[in-house]
Amino acid sequence: MQTITGTDIELAKEFLCNGDLVAIPTETVYGLAANALDEDAVLKIFEVKNRPRFNPLIVHCANWEQMEKYVKNIPAKAEILAKKFCPGPLTFLFDKQDIIPDLVTAGNAKVAIRIPDHPLTLALLASLDFPVAAPSANPFGYISPTTAQHVFKNLSGKIPYILDGGVAEVGLESTIIGFGENEQVILYRVGGISVEEIETVLQEKIIVENTFGLNKPETAGQLKSHYAPDTALYTGDINQLLLQFAGKRVATISFFKQYSVLPLSNQFILSPSGNLDEAAKNLFAALRTIDELNVDVILAEIFPDKGIGRAINDRLNRAGVENK
Ligand code: TXA
Ligand code: MG
User: Fold this and answer.
1) Beta-bridge partners for 187
2) Counting CB atoms within 10 angstroms of each CB, which of 32, 40, 74, 316 has the fewest?
3) Ligand (nearest to CA of 26)
4) Contact 191, 284 (CB under 8 A)
5) What residue ranges line ligand 1, CB within 6 angstroms?
6) What is the residue extent of each domain of the chain?
7) Which residues contact 93 (CB under 8 A, 6 or more apart)?
8) Ligand nearest to the CA of 144
9) Residues 6 or more apart from 183 whose CB is under 8 A from it?
């Protein structure tokens, strides 16, 4: 199959209406989209990604009104959060309507659903009379793509079309939340919207269940090894790690620091000005570039554990050798 990359929304629509897959840009990472109401189309996602069927997919809608057709019992708190963060990198777990196939939710009575914030994809979604199911457009377990070129590298020959929307602005996957008793907000995956941002809007503490390494596949984003480069990755104090791996070919990932003992070409400084949002945006591209450098190990700093820094640390931990 020939894979075309372009910005033609009409063509993307044609493929989706035909039951084919299209890679779509979002503000978080690129998604691999199919008509969420068409089981045969959704099956292709699992095949192309080599993704286990027990791992459910996020459904993407153009707006809140469209979303309401596919879910029920929306808690009042979700509406408050949506006013602030939708469209945006926040995914909700809501009770699903019957029209959403069990294949999409892996049998779960709840569906993960969000409104992505990207002009091309919003225009595409608004032109469809169905929502799209879309996991990140990478082979299962590998690093999520943040450019159309990343998608092409991983999936060319396997999908007909990549809608090119440039570099993903956020660069990390969406935050996933659900609602427990009394509408208590439970966060299942740290991502583009921070814990602090949600707590500020709701004026209350939320439960963070992003328990790393639980390996409960039925729960969002909690597979142990994930987002992983092929190269072994260690997180910690870089100076110490450099001693530990003396004699090895090394690349580093740092927030803003430079390490004088290493050539600059092996150092990936994610934000020289010390901006966590910028660091998040650059993380996955850096991991992919390092994977092509042919080094023995990647040594990564631990980032400030606040705001989107938590999501950066989460992805680095999941990419680490301890979890392979
Ligand atoms: O930013 C994102 O969320 C990107 C873009 C493309 O929207 N998508 C994404 O999808 O990261 P994926 O499939 O790579 O990760 C979705 C996570 C998975 O860990 C899955 O287990 C969880 O969401 N999930 C999806 N549906 C669920 C459901 N019904 N119940 C529990 N977890 C669910
Ligand atoms: Mg993924």
Assistant:
1) 177, 208
2) 40
3) 1
4) no
5) 26, 28-29, 31, 55-58, 89, 91, 93, 105, 108, 110-112, 116, 134-136, 173-174, 176, 220-221
6) 4-208, 232-323
7) 110, 111, 112, 113, 176, 177, 178, 179, 188, 220
8) 2
9) 75, 76, 77
Let me know if domain 4-208 sits in CATH 3.90.870.10.
Answer: yes
Q: Is the dihedral of CA 319, 286, 172, 10 positive or negative?
A: negative
Best CA proximity match to 190, nearest among 217, 202, 172: 172
Query: HSE (CB half, 13 Å, CA atoms) of 85?
Result: 26
Using one digit for the tens of pLDDT, what is the confidence trace for 229-254? 999 999 999 999 999 999 999 999 99
- Ligand 1 mean position to 142 CA, how many Å? 14
Residue 224: what pLDDT? 54
Bridge partners of 250, per DSSP, are 297
- Give the rounded percent of residues in the chain with a pLDDT score beyond 70: 94
Distance 144 CA to ligand 2 centre (A): 6
pLDDT of residue 220: 52
pLDDT in tens, 300-310: 999 999 999 99
Closest approach atom of ligand 1 to CA 217: 21
DSSP structure string for 16-83: HHTT--EEE--SSS-EEEEETT-HHHHHHHHHHHT--TTS--EEE-SSHHHHTTTEE---HHHHHHHH
Rounded to an integer, the average pLDDT of 153-158 is 98
Which pTM was predicted?
Answer: 0.96
% of the chain beyond a pLDDT of 90: 90
Considering the domain 232-323 in this protein, what is its CATH number? 3.40.50.11030
Give the closest residue (by CA) to ligand 1 atom 29.
111
pLDDT for residue 217: 46
- Which residue's CA is minimally distant from atom 6 of ligand 1? 31
Helix (H, G, I), strand (E, B) or coil at 191: coil
pLDDT in tens, 71-88: 999 999 999 999 999 999
Q: How many CB atoms lie within 10 A of CB 62?
A: 20
